[in-house]
Every structure is written in C-alpha cells, then in structure tokens.
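This section describes the prediction task in plain terms. A model, or a person checking by hand, is given the sequence of a single protein chain and must write out its three-dimensional structure as a string of tokens. No templates, partner chains or ligands are provided. The sample shown here is typical of the held-out split.
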Amino acid sequence: MMRYRYLVAGLLPAAAFAAGCDDVTMAEEDATEFQTTISVSSTIIETTGDTLVGDTVQFGVTVTRDGSLFRVSAPRFESSDSDVVRIVDPTTGAAIFQSTGRAIVSVAFTELQFPDSMLRAAMTVPVDSLSLNLSVLSDFVVSGDTLVGDTVQFSASVKRKDGREVENALAFFQSSDANVVKFMDVTTGVAELTGPGIAQVTVTFLSPIVPGPPLSAVIPIRVTDFAVILSLASVSSGTIEVGDTLVSDSVRFSVFARKGEETLPVTNPTFVSSDLSVVDILDPRTGRAVFADTGTAVVTVSFTDPNLPRRTASRTLRVTTYRVDVSGPTSPPMGDVVQYVAAVIDTRSGQPAGTSGRKFSSSNTSVAEILDSHGGETFI
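The expected answer:
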C-alpha cells in the first residue's frame, strides 16, 4: 500500500494576508505531494490590495499534485466569524465582508480516492474600513476665523482602521457657493475666500475605490469680512475734520481693522502718498507726514500682518489754505451787547469751509468783554 504526503497551504495574491497552513499527513520516500491553495479576489482587492467592509468577494481553491493541477470536486468554504466574513455560497466561495475584524476562511473536501484523508486549507482575512478626514489650513487666521481675501489650503486624507494612511489618494474638492469659497484648483484643494457667508466644502475621493457610494466628506466654512480703516490725526492741533487739512500742518496716519464690533490691530503698515508735493510722507512705517502744498493726494496703506489677509485702504485728501473773515459792528456804543460772526473761507475756491474749534477772544477785556467765546457774543 502506497502512502501519500499532503502539503496544505493558504496563500493570497498581492501579499495582503497572513497565510495559515496545516500539515495533515506523514512523509514517505515514495510520497506524492499535494498542495492546496485558497485565494480571494475582488475588483477592490485587485486594484488597491484593501479588504474593505461592504466588498463582495470570491474565494477560490486550487489543488496541485506534484506541481500539476489536480481536479477536485465539492469544496466547502466556511468562516470562523460570519459577522466579519459571511459566506454567501459555501460551494462557490462567494462572500461578503460584513464588518471590520479578522476571520479565518477555510475550505475542505474529501476525495473518494483518498478516503482516509481530507484536503483542506485556511486563510486569515483582516477586514478593514477607511476613514476620511477633511481640514482647512490658513496662515491668516484671527480667533479661529476664516477671513475674506484669505487663500486657504484644504487637505483630505484617507486612513485605514489601524491608522495607516492610504497613499496616492486622488481627491476632488467642490464648494457649494463660489461667492464665499472659490477653488483655484479642485484637485490640490487651494481656495480663495471670496466673500462673507457660509459654504459647504465637499471632498470626494476618486481613488482608492471603495464599496458602495464614493468616499466623501463635508465641512462647513464660515467666512467673515473685515474692514481696514485709515485714520488721520493732526500733530499740530490734535484734531482734523472735513475740510480742515491745512498747508504746513504736521499729521500722523494710522490704520486698524474692524471685524463686526471688534477692533483689531494692524502690524507692519506702509503708508504711500500719490503726490509727495502735496502730502509728504516723512516716515512710511509710522505714518508721520506733512501737508507740503495745496492740492489733492491719495494716501494708501498696505500691510503684512501675520494674522490678516493682505488688503489696502486709501483716503483722498484735499489740502488748501484759508482766511478767516470776522463780521460785526466796528464802533458799537458802550454798554451794548453785540454779536460777532466768524467765517472760514477757502482761499482757492472762495467758498466757506469748516469752522470747527473756533474761539473768540478780546485783546482788552475792559473795552470788549467776550461773553461767549464760541458764539461771539460780546459786551462793550
């Protein structure tokens, strides 16, 4: 009577799984070697090498005898955990990956010509799942806000359950409102925040392929606007109002940002004048300037603030000279209360200009006593 040796092994293409094997016979010098191989395949496994929840797969088995294909019949596939791998058809090997975990899938069959032995093989199958993370990164964020004018980078990553990141993942980014978030490149995730409001940013992965619908994630983005305000103060008089920009006045420009009710400081400003013969910027960093001559100039401020997107603000200034005309009685009788009126006239246009901050005074209060220094009422 001839004895046989059966070598049983479990293997999987693409080296995705750990193989399980059992030696079930004895070895003889005249032994015949049988090798039983179990495998699993699906479009997803063949494309990415991943065994993912939801995938419908096909287990198969081959038996070789001394290196040649050996025909067998009536295989039967079984799973050690049907909650992880559910065998749909034990004969054909059709199965579904139900949930994450590990299960041992085995196959066995008895050949009539070997009634005292059973050929069998087993395979350990780790079933995984993918998770998707979507985030946004910006160098210009104040208090966690995304601000109008900012250019941001959306990043998405796909990871397996064990934390390993899926390489060569191809993503497609989309915004629900281009007036709020506009993608400059839908594959790299670079976008511009174009206006205030809320937009839904969706990332969909075209690769890797997964069971069921495409792998996607959504993140809401709230974009807030802010205003850059250019202000001006007189170094000479301490106040500047409309029309009160006088030749030879020394001034200081400053800038700040306003977001809603919140005032934000602005760092690293640079002040520029369109006409230095009218508004001469003495120090572009501090905003110190002088009104050099009559005329019109536009002062613009730009800045490189690490907390704010780049933006500019401008202000048009009309520099002029004035004369003050005082009208009232020239020879009032003693004991009368008279009214003097002052008018500031633009010497270039001849038109009245602002008269804020006027104050009447008398050189001799024993002759004319000013009763109202602002209104001009005087007692003679």
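For orientation: Helices lie at 43-48.
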